[in-house]
Amino acid sequence: MSTAKPAAGKGKTGATPSGAPKTPRTTRTTKTEKAGKTETTAAATRAPRAPRVKKPETTGTTGTTGTTATTATTAPAEHRSRRQQKTGRVVSNKMQKTIVVAVESLKRHPLYKRTYKSTNRFKAHDEYNEALPGDLVRIEETRPISKDKRWRLVEIVKRAAQAPSVAQVVSQLDPHTTETEER
Questions:
Q1: Do 97 and 91 contact (CB within 8 A), yes or no?
Q2: Of 70, 121, 161, 167, which residue is least crowded by CB atoms under 10 Å?
Q3: From CA 130, how far away is CA 138, in angstroms rounded?
Q4: Domain range for residue 107?
Q5: What's the CATH code of the domain at 119?
Q6: Which portions of the chain are predicted below pLDDT 50?
Q7: Which residues are 120's β-sheet partners?
Q8: What is the pTM of this model?
Q9: How far apart are CA 181 and CA 168, in angstroms?
């Protein structure tokens, strides 16, 4: 058995017996240099992009005369509005000029595929304090009015059946009791 170590065996010395490194070292290229090389080659092979062409403003159906109808440019701003609208029930109107609207939506669970009901509450601006709790209302997106208000009341779709006050119910049941209490 010889005690001599192999020349290129496992070990930390990476030199050959002659003292020269095994492979010649090359200089590294940085990421920016690589990116610069790929950009120049890609730019050289890519064709210039054509400018975008606007679609014509006139659309519609051709009539018997063969002319096309133009789009109405004088349409009201409400119909051209791209603001989001939601329909929900008024939960609270205890704040001045503000209502809280609960909007329910059905969602589907991504994993279990079960549909469930999700409720979001939005604070909406009610300029004239018209909406009452239980009313079905339509609200629309608007500019931020306060910290939480980004919606405004568009219309009251359906009024809730408002319960009469206790005094009205008692007076209908027994009109003599209210007269004696007042005296």
A1: no
A2: 161
A3: 13
A4: 87-158
A5: 2.40.50.140
A6: 38-40, 42-43, 63, 66-75
A7: 103
A8: 0.49
A9: 14
